[in-house]
Amino acid sequence: MNHHHPSSARARRSLSTDSVFGAPCWVSLTSRDLGATQEFYEAVLGWEWRRGVLGDHFRTALVGNVPVAGVAAVASMWQMAVAWTPYFAVSDADEAASRARERGGTVAVGPISLPPGRAALLADRDGATFGIWEGELIGNWEAWRQAAPAFIKLHTRDAFDSAIFYGELLEWATDRPGGVEVRYEGGEVVLRSRGDVVARIESGALEAAPDPTIRPHWQVHFAVADVAACARAAEKHGGSVLVESDHEAVLRDQDGAQFTVTSHHAR
User: Under a CB-based contact definition with an 8 Å cutoff, are residues 262 and 221 in contact?
Assistant: First the structure.
């Protein structure tokens, strides 16, 4: 039997948002129907499920026993759109929410206590939705970071302007050790945490576009072995394919939430 030393297990469990502040630390889907959502992602991405620590409305998706994403069946309860949302680590959720408001963003939900932390759902000044989380990170956070989404990308009106908004809100590119580094590469803003590319920001979204694929939004990309198989499974289980190429497909789930499957494991 594999016995972990209790203190090392505790040390692993207690990694907090303070140590990776500003970095994406989780992705979560708001859903109307937990059962249908679980069935769809099981068929398309092969996910397994366990009950979340946050209660009946929450589930955690697992791949090979590593938590990769959360589902919160709160869309009706919190009057929210159904969407995939990245969460960023912050040292103080209340302070970060205030900074967002001061800079023209909006706070949709929270900050509320969801032990072991505090969470809020925000929108940036162009309407893209994102979350912030203060508190303990999932127990094997480094494993999440390796196994989880290939990356998240913000499609926005002006990448430079958005980088300033998020940078001030999430303390990117500050002197505090451990923070997120920001680089401008080929017209995109590329964000790195501990040396890994964790997010990208690109210009070109249109604020009032009727098509949600070109309105400002955070797009979550999941790395998969077979893009075409995922696309066919999505169609078969009530979802749809918005864009498809050999290496990538933009899909919509049975509830309307948009996400990307990609064969690019490199970020």
Answer: yes
CA 119 – CA 181 distance, rounded (Å): 23
Strands 217-223 vs 196-202: parallel, antiparallel or unpaired: unpaired
Q: Which amino acid is at 100?
A: A
Contact 60, 101 (CB under 8 A): no
Backbone angle region of 63, left / alpha / beta, with phi > 0 → left and psi within -120 to 50 → alpha = beta
Residues in contact with 123: Cβ distance below 8 Å, sequence separation at least 6, in sequence order: 105, 106, 108, 129, 130
- Cα dist. 212→28, 53, 79, 128 in Å? 19, 32, 18, 11
pTM for this prediction:
0.87
Tokens for 111?
Answer: 């900050």
In terms of phi and psi (left: phi > 0; alpha: psi -120 to 50; beta: otherwise), the region of 135 is: left
**pLDDT per residue as tens digits for the range 54-82:** 677 889 898 888 888 999 887 666 667 78
Query: C-alpha 209: how far from its chain's center?
Result: 23
Q: Where are the alpha helices (DSSP H) in 71-116?
A: 93-102
2 or 165: which leads in pLDDT? 165
**According to the model, what pLDDT value does residue 3 have?**
39
Please tell me the distance from the alpha carbon of residue 39 to that of residue 42, in angstroms, as a whole number.
5
The confidence band for 10, taking pLDDT boundaries of 50, 70 and 90, is very low
Other CB atoms closer than 10 Å to residue 204's CB: what's the count? 12
